[in-house]
Amino acid sequence: MSTEDATPSPAPHERQSRPRATGPNTQRTLSGEDAHGTTSFETVPDLRVLGQLHDTYIVAEADDGLVLVDQHAADERINYERLREQFDGETTTQALAEPVEVALTAEEAELFGTYEDALARLGFLADRVDDRTVEVRTVPSVVAESADPAVLREVLAEMVTGEDAAERTVEAIADELLADMACYPSITGNTSLTDGSVVDLLGALDDCENPWACPHGRPVLVHIDSDEVEARFERDYPGHSGRRE
């Protein structure tokens, strides 16, 4: 190729920069989808859902930091308060299509005789078939869909467990039963949720009297504030002030 045919390269100062991308300033997730907007709540912080961690924890941005929500604990709290509201009214029972016989230990059989009336108040109507077997005819309506009739054995155990068993009221035992029953229909960990179901779950949690803990006392939300995030990344080191963020 001759010298005349050669096209000289532009000098560095003459090179044009690459054109900047243009378009709407839409915030997107790492997968390229539009990011969620912030949802306002009455009790829990206003949150912008970012996604799920291990299909178990909802990850959301708050005004001051990061919020992780245990989806099982959240749904458990929601179900517990729903069950408790139903139970606070007149106790209703649901008859079983076929009575279910439950075999008891000798101790459980003795307890059944002592607490038969209390069990009836809870909604468990049962008759003794023989010394060690009872036939359960009804269960509390609030747990009918999620509890096996054999849960009656667990209720008997609750009535006599612990040092304060003698002082515990039927209502206290019922409350513990409802807490256990709330677990059965609740969303489990390792469950992928749709965008809409996450927002619905958070909205129902916000309506709860106590959205901060599940009925067994475990935390529902963990808030990692901005100061802690910055401290973990050591953004407060000397001389950082005034530098590019």
Q: Give the end-to-end Cα distance, rounded to a whole number of Å.
A: 51 Å
Biggest sheet, strands in spatial order? 1-2-3-7
Using the 3D structure, state the CATH architecture of the domain at 93-181. 2-Layer Sandwich
Shape: elongated
CATH class designation of the domain at 93-181: Alpha Beta
Order of helices and strands: EEEHEHEEHHHEH
Q: Kindly state the percentage of residues in helix.
A: 25-40%
Would you report the number of β strands? Answer: 7
Mean pLDDT: 81
| CATH topology title of the domain at 93-181 | Ribosomal Protein S8, Chain: A, domain 1
Task: Provide the structure class.
Answer: alpha+beta
Helix count equals 6
Computed over alpha carbons, the radius of gyration is 30 Å
- Report low-confidence residues grouped into runs of 5 or more: 9-30
**CATH homologous superfamily heading of the domain at 93-181:** MutL, C-terminal domain, regulatory subdomain
Strand content: 15-25%
